[in-house]
Write a structure and sequence with these properties.
alpha/beta, 49% helix, two-stranded antiparallel sheet, eight-stranded mixed sheet, 10 strands, 333 residues
């Protein structure tokens, strides 16, 4: 079997490294300007994480060649680039029976579409699955174990990807048919991870962190239910599992963004220093627009949107969150 990874960023390279021995052929596609000489010649990358790939892995900027004969195509480009990649896949001759697995976590702006909706908008006949869960790249590269969800409305497709991409003792996949829930859990938790990094750096304590995660999850569930998700999915790997991992780890890019915001840094400077995409930044805007459209209250996400896009001070943001009108706690399950 052949695996093609679309996107030569940190997570794309990590997945290629992790899954190499599962496939007879592995190809990584990236834009010519994104492929370093070191990666092409030595199968090695040093930024933002060090990854050493095996000799069997092919690196190319030729998309048609990359996807030719591939059984599974992993999309691991930023949310903002997914539509363009799908248009290019269409031009490159992707076949409907090839399974496209989306591993990017975000919501397209300004359309407010989930990634599966974007992909289906361009490639309506494509076999499609979603991969999401607590998958911090640095830990995966260290060989530490984790689990994730692979979601598809067609359970047979999900089971095929599950079998092909599970790695004994390292990467355990669970199938799920709730595509909406798996996608939204993986996307919306990035905003709460920014809040967690913000609170930790301000020294607000573990009680505050626990409260943020809980109230943040309540927002994720509120929005996701209105969009058609099964609430129980949000308490699984691509919801609560991913939330706990990203909200407690400085290895999370979104957590790091929150930490730097708490120090008073501006978002443009933060992203420049980070050198890679933190999906929670744009997702904070997306969830606020979704919440307004659905008439749903999302105070934690709204606070992070303000922290990212306005000049509000960290202390003023905290006071605004803590002094809201008192209310009853929701119960979903």
């Amino acid at each position: 079997m052949k695996l093609t990874v679309i996107g030569a960023g940190c997570w794309g390279l990590t997945l290629a490294w992790l899954l190499t021995d599962n496939f007879d052929e592995v190809t990584i596609w990236g834009r010519e300007q994104d492929l370093s000489d070191d990666l092409i010649q030595n199968r090695h990358a040093s930024k933002p994480l060090e990854v050493q790939l095996k000799e069997k892995v092919e690196i190319t900027s030729n998309l048609a060649a990359a996807i030719s004969g591939a059984d599974i195509i992993l999309n691991v480009v930023a949310t903002s680039g997914t539509r363009d990649v799908c248009e290019n896949l269409k031009k490159a001759g992707i076949k409907s029976e090839q399974i496209l697995v989306n591993a990017s976590k975000g919501i397209e702006l300004p359309s407010l579409m989930r990634m599966s909706e974007v992909i289906k908008d361009v490639l309506p006949e494509q076999k499609l699955a979603i991969l999401s869960g607590p998958t911090l790249a640095k830990e995966v590269l260290a060989g530490l174990p984790t689990a994730a969800s692979v979601a598809c409305e067609d359970i047979k497709v999900a089971e095929f990807v599950q079998k092909a991409c599970s790695v004994p003792s390292k990467f355990r996949l669970y199938t799920n048919t709730d595509v909406i829930g798996v996608e939204l859990g993986g996307s919306l938790k990035n905003v709460i991870a920014i809040a967690s990094g913000f609170a930790k750096t301000m020294g607000l304590g573990d009680n505050c962190t626990g409260s943020l995660l809980t109230r943040g999850m309540a927002e994720i569930v509120r929005v996701s239910i209105q969009l058609g998700a099964n609430p129980s999915t949000l308490y699984g790997l691509s919801g609560m599992g991913d939330l706990i991992a990203t909200c407690s780890s400085p290895m999370s890019r979104n957590y790091t963004v929150g930490s730097m915001l708490a120090k008073g840094k501006k978002i443009d400077d933060i992203l420049s220093e980070l050198g890679s995409v933190a999906e929670g930044v744009k997702t904070s805007k997306a969830i606020c627009e979704l919440a307004k459209k659905l008439d749903i209250d999302v105070p934690v996400s709204s606070a992070i949107y303000e922290a990212v896009y306005t000049d509000i001070t960290p202390q003023a943001l905290l006071e605004k969150l803590m002094n809201r009108k008192l209310k009853e706690e929701e119960r979903y399950v």
